[in-house]
Prior knowledge:
Glucose Permease (Domain IIA), 3 helices, seven-stranded antiparallel β-sheet, 2 domains, elongated, three-stranded antiparallel β-sheet, 13 strands, alpha+beta, 216 residues
Amino acid sequence: MNFAREGIPFILIAMALAAAGYVAALARRSWPLWLLAFVLTLLVLWVAYFFRDPERSGPRGDTLVISPADGRVIEIKEVDEPAFLKGRAIRISVFMNVFNVHVNRYPVSGKVAYVHYNPGKFLNAAAEKASLENEQSSIGVQTATQKVLFRQIAGLIARRIVTYSREGDDAEQGARMGLIRFGSRVDVFVPVGSVVKVHLGERPVAGTTVLAELPK
């Protein structure tokens, strides 16, 4: 199992705490300390599980938009997108809970033409206004024929968005481009005329599930 590099310090800290718990339990022969050491071991397993980074494969293509995140589709809506698409767009929102893989991936291939970080609030990421008011990082990719924007949005618990993308970078569909810690949301904006391939409540898999097909 691979782990996201941002999670390695958290895993090591949890392991050190668990080890200290076992040392203390052995030294004092105390059942409460043995229980504490066991709980810390569970913490190690959970932290490692949260930062897992499995390899992903699936459909690829110039007209396909692949999910950038694991989670659940909570909204499919036509909205205004003035920052990058500069017009009407279809927004597909994927909510990630603390049990989902939190490594994010490029939904399309092309050139990174827009990157913008906006500090903000930490509202429930599933709420409508979270897309505008929460801490977020927006990445726009110019494909061969279309523009696609996706937005990493922090939630109630998430306090750290990691974005590898820089303007001018090459975006490779399905490749890792960042991570959001501890529960969050990713919005994908595609041009009007795109064919949405998922439905509300569906659970897409990052790098694998096709969210939409771009107009040709």
